[in-house]
């Protein structure tokens, strides 16, 4: 039973895939900040499931890793918990490879993609990639997928401009990711993407991050494997055998997740912040009751 029933008055019907850069160049602090932004953005939607917004989450370094597909969630609280449990992994950044495989296998009927719902790809990246992105981008655009980018422009801003076809509208600051208004604006732009009449649609949300990020001086070589490793599966599968079985256990990851950089230098758990928000909201409406997370 879902703790928060869907609000059918929210008629937004989209398949939204968040593609998170989890490479070493972006750093864990920025990754956690971006992850919190994703959580807050999804909170803005009130109808999650087959007749509303569907969300898929993929993170990438040398390969994309599928956290969950479109068909997994129709309950918003469970979806938010799943996002918050995403693990930072480090590694090289093969954005072109990730976009290519997401276009082919992420937005796929077997993964829950709906023919009557527009597709939106939200790319979270620092503007660095160790492989080519031109052909994968063309594939996405040919499919009519709307592309939104949240980018920390520190190393290669020209790549970000290439991602969006030099359409530099809707500029936001990732350093404000803990502020709700940024999530509200991002969610509104996602909603508006289904109204764009002429594909390919492309928009950029570019982040001017205030804290410095250390980029490795040694350029890591790109991995040439053609496999698509998925967090939903206990094993690696090839492109042709892109499987649909979901697996609850994370595999082949490095480090632990769920910390968000606050206004100080401490790191906090994303799930903990979500619980605190839940308690605060409940306390304001019912002073004698506190929400206890399941």
TrEMBL record:
Where do the VWFA domain residues begin and end? Answer: 15-190
List the GO terms this entry assigns under cellular component, sorted alphabetically.
extracellular region
Give me the ranges of the annotated region Disordered: 275-294
Q: What is its main location?
A: secreted
PROSITE patterns, per this entry? VWFA
> Which InterPro entries does the annotation name?
ECM_Assembly_Org, VWF_A, vWFA_dom_sf
User: Where, subcellularly, is it found?
Assistant: Secreted
- Which residue intervals are annotated with compositional bias (Polar residues) in the record? 279-294
Q: Which UniProt keywords apply?
A: Disulfide bond, Phosphoprotein, Repeat, Secreted, Signal
Tell me what this protein is called.
VWFA domain-containing protein
Q: Which organism is it from?
A: Parascaris univalens (Nematode worm)
């Amino acid at each position: 039973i879902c703790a928060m029933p869907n609000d059918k008055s929210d008629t937004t019907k989209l398949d939204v895939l968040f593609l998170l850069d989890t490479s070493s160049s972006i750093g864990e602090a920025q990754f956690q900040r971006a992850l919190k932004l994703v959580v807050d953005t999804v909170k803005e939607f009130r109808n999650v499931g087959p007749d509303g917004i569907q969300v898929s989450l993929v993170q990438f370094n040398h390969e994309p890793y599928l956290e969950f597909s479109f068909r997994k969630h129709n309950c918003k609280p469970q979806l938010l918990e799943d996002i918050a449990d995403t693990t930072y992994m480090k590694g090289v950044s093969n954005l072109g490879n990730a976009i290519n495989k997401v276009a082919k296998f992420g937005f796929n009927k077997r993964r829950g993609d709906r023919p009557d719902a527009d597709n939106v790809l939200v790319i979270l990246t620092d503007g660095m990639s160790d492989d080519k992105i031109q052909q994968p981008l063309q594939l996405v655009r040919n499919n009519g997928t709307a592309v939104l980018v949240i980018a920390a422009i520190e190393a290669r801003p020209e790549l970000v401009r290439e991602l969006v076809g030099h359409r530099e509208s809707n500029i936001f600051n990732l350093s404000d990711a803990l502020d709700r208004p940024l999530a509200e604006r991002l969610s509104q732009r996602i909603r508006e993407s289904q109204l764009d009449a002429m594909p390919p649609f492309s928009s950029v949300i570019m982040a001017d991050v205030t804290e410095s990020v250390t980029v490795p001086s040694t350029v890591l070589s790109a991995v040439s494997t053609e496999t698509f490793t998925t967090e939903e599966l206990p094993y690696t599968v090839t492109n042709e055998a892109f499987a649909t079985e979901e697996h609850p256990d994370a595999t082949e990851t490095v480090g632990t997740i769920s910390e968000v950089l606050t206004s100080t230098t401490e790191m906090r758990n994303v799930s903990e912040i979500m619980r605190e928000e839940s308690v605060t909201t409940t306390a304001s409406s019912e002073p004698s009751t506190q929400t206890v997370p399941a």
